[in-house]
Design brief:
Strand content: 15-25%
CATH topology of the largest domain: Ubiquitin-like (UB roll)
Radius of gyration: 22 Å
Order of helices and strands: EEEEEHHHHHH
Mean pLDDT: 90
């Protein structure tokens, strides 16, 4: 499977196949099923109607940007992950910049940007951290940048012993 992004949108069919080099690539619309492995788990995602491009000679399937976006949305729904829009809306609701949220989550700003644009799907553990951060003021307080004292705020649990910070 490859992307059809290198074909100009105004180029008439048939397109030249990147695999077999024959001019046999035509649009195809219908049910599409794909196996996605994410965070060590396998998901079977089925879309009832997806436009893609298929070579009639060798069977190579090409997906354009819109098809990839639809697959990602369906996968996020099935896996129960926040959508790019939900991440962006929650961040803005808290009045944070991408840089500020990225710092609190200990991820690169570029990574957070890719999540918000839908270019990358966040790991399940970071999705859960974001949900906690967005919903619980105590988590937001705990993940605030450290003050000059270097002491972390606590979550109301007193821990003692040599293993504590």
């Amino acid at each position: 499977m490859s992307n059809a992004n290198n074909q100009p949108k105004s180029c008439p069919f048939p397109w030249k196949c990147g695999r077999c080099r024959q001019r046999e690539v035509y649009p195809l619309e219908g049910e599409y099923t794909i196996e996605i492995v994410h965070d060590g788990r396998s998901y079977t995602v089925t879309l009832p109607s997806l436009r893609r491009f298929r070579c009639r000679n060798c069977g190579e399937v090409n997906l354009d940007e819109e098809a990839n976006k639809q697959i990602s949305q369906a996968f996020r729904r099935q896996a129960g992950l926040l959508t790019p829009e939900e991440i962006r809306q929650n961040r803005k609701k808290l009045g944070l910049t991408q840089e500020e949220l990225a710092e609190r989550l200990s991820v690169a700003e570029a990574t957070l940007s890719r999540w918000e644009k839908g270019w990358q799907i966040q790991q399940r553990s970071l999705d859960k951290l974001m949900r906690l951060f967005f919903e619980l003021p105590e988590v937001r307080q705990f993940l605030q940048p450290r003050a000059s004292s270097g002491k972390r705020p606590t979550l109301g649990v007193r821990m003692e012993g040599p293993w504590c910070w």
